[in-house]
Amino acid sequence: MEHCGGSLGSLILVVAISFLVPILLYQLRLRIIPVVVAEIVAGLIIGKSGFQLVGNDAWLELLSLLGFIYLMFLSGLEIDFTSFLKKSSGSGGKPGFSPLVVAITIFMGIFLFSGLFAWGLLWFGLVNRVFLTTLIISTISLGVVVPVLKERKLLQTDLGQTLLLITVLADFFTMILLAFYVSLLSRNMSKMLLLLLFFLIVVAIFFIVRRLVSGKVFQILGRSSIQFGTRAIFALILMIVFLSESLGVENILGAFLAGTIVSLLRPKKEFVHQLESFGYGFLIPIFFVMIGAKLELRPMLTDTRVLLTIPVLLVLMFAAKWLPMLLLKRWYAWREVMSSSILLSSKLSLVIAAATLALDLKMIDATFHGALILVAILSCIVFPVVYNKISPKAEEAKKTITIIGLNHISKPVAQDLAGEDLYSVKVYTSSGSDAAGGEGEELPGAVHHVSDLQTETLRASGAFEADTIVFATADDDLNCRLAKLLQAGSGKRVLVRVEAPDKQAEMTGEGFEVFSTLYAARTVLRALIDSPGALKLLTEEEGTIFEVTIDHLPYRTTLLHQLPNLENVLILRIYRGESYLIPHGTTEIRLGDRLLLSGSSEAVARFRQSVQA
Length: 613
Known about the structure:
CATH topology of the largest domain: Na+/H+ antiporter like fold
CATH class of the largest domain: Mainly Alpha
Strand content: 5-15%
Strand order of the largest sheet: 3-2-1-4-5-6
CATH architecture of the largest domain: Up-down Bundle
Helix content: 55-70%
Number of domains: 3
Shape: globular
Radius of gyration: 27 Å
């Protein structure tokens, strides 16, 4: 009973610290420091290097292990495999620039230079494991790079896509190569065969899970209130982790591959946020606090080899990124190349994973393990801050809208949108489809005349390269046919004009956003009778109602009143999935929420920029 009380007290202390750390960072205006780094520092204070309030504890060890496994799962979940299929956005007019080809070339260069530097460290007697050191130098922290790119609004640019792809490649292959390296060290061919068998079973599990998820049972249970999706995720993680341990494979690889399986299934943002909330809200902070609690700084501070290795590793981590990144000099300015190299030098989770695994396998001692943790912490503090200081600010990309069909309905809307600084509008028309004639004179440069409004013609003219596509011709059949052909795998927002009531029901049932002049007229008349004030709000120049989707939040748990740039903006309603919430100051905002708000165009534009990536 005494042991149980001690365990519970240690657990309460660690959980309390994980609760207080974000508050302190916010109050002290230290948001440039990643929360996980602050948690490790807090662990140093209460652990072996500090007041020794937390020691070896069974409960904390178990929860820390679960946090480590869940962190590796989320690392796999963060990998967006669709980024490999994205084409160059063409921003900045970079001829011959392909983000995927350039990313693969740079990653190969990073791995090559990391290997050369590792041999150099071995020659000087600073390390004794070349391949492990190569992996540590070459890895990049996806959890640090992605938030920084989002904050700088670079993810939709060619440079941002390239940096993301390099990070994904480094994250994925480092974990896979680490698993193979551990198997090779065992000098047991059967262990290598078991590793290959494990990969084959994981592939089979992916196809089984993908089929189950698309089945009727999962669809029905997924909409229920029993959090069936979360149960399924934890069952998947534990099953693959158990399978990995049964086959003699490291459990962190099993958790990582479980995350990649879920990522390949393309879960909704709301569901991913729910999974992240549990991990970063409970298990993962315990792991990072315990990392700091177990570190002993005194031996490191008295070991000349370790003190020399830490700055040398930091310099080599940057050099291994900077030298291959010089390839980008063909398309980008010196400051962009230099700052990108600095950002990619950030590392955290995988270095900690590799160091922890190496310590467990007795490949390194506790002192060098602590040095690697310190290197990871310093890289997360120094490199992102320096990047923000020297990186040139990216120009704000306007949302692109394509309107198919120029007529009395689409023309005034196109004029309004073109007059705002938020959108880049293109209107496509042909003489045979709409009364185009001279109706594009008020939209100079925005109207594109094509021979016909067929899919091949529109695709060849670049009409579908936009964030939102509006099919607004007077031909219902043409609008529906074009929308259905585009919708398959496009991932774009598609609005369709349909006047026939039966076709409206059909298209709405298939998930399209449908509008109709007849329905709109009826709605406006009813609103004029019932709620003239609401209609005035919708139609007046200032105070127009807007809808903004939340793609970026300042904190992992963000309340409505904590959202930036809320001045002169009124939040009317919050849509979440198929339901909605009445907004209050303490309402928790989640990624994917759609906020209905009112305010001036300038105020809404400022708010939109702060919550969208």
